[in-house]
Amino acid sequence: MGLFDLTGKVAIVTGSTKGIGEAIVHRMAEHGAKVVVSSRKGDACDKVAGEINAKHPDSAIAVPCNISDKGDLERLVDTTMKKWGRVDSLVCNAAVNPYFGPSKDLPDDAFDKIMSANIKSNHWLAHMVLPQMVERKDGSITIISSIGGLRGSPILGAYCVSKAADMQLARNLAVEYGSSNIRVNCIAPGLIKTYFAKALWDNPDILERSTAGAPLKRIGMPDEIAGAAVFLASPAGAFMTGQTMVIDGGATAA
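User: That's the sequence. What structure does it adopt?
Assistant: Structure tokens below.
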């Protein structure tokens, strides 16, 4: 088996109909995995799964899911288990940020929504796939965090708190389940050209300000995160657990 070979592996990727998540399901399928495409909209899931199956027949299924709904998450895992009988890799990519501004003005319902979707749903979903991973003594979980979890922000405070919590969730799960040969890590992207981050790159002046302090002085592309997800799910990442992989064009180094 090659270092990055995912043949025979089954991967669930949340929020995988656009941006980073979409890039991950395409690349995982390219490396041999069976992938579960999931986001809230069924038609978007069908579209991406169809594109993958056109290139790699019978490699993708579409399972719409709202990550804030525990029943939806259970159905996501149950559907995958019925189809392929296992989950080798879970990538928790879906997240929300309904509020931009100072924390003093953050509405309670927005705070609760951010913490529920960005932390609690990952906790729920991880524990839904972990039992069969423990049984097989093999598995990987990757949480897509953010460099926002490594530093403060005057306008993204609650989001940053949630992303820092995701890093700690990965560390805790890595410690709890390492003896079962299960690896849990985070990827912390910097500014990536996704719809989610559109406010930070859509305007050329804002984009220049957003990237000026980073050594590479440019925005990242979703595919530049996907390779790390393949690495963490593959034999190449077999000795890495409890870590946060920062991919940010050098922004946090500068």
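The mean pLDDT is 96.
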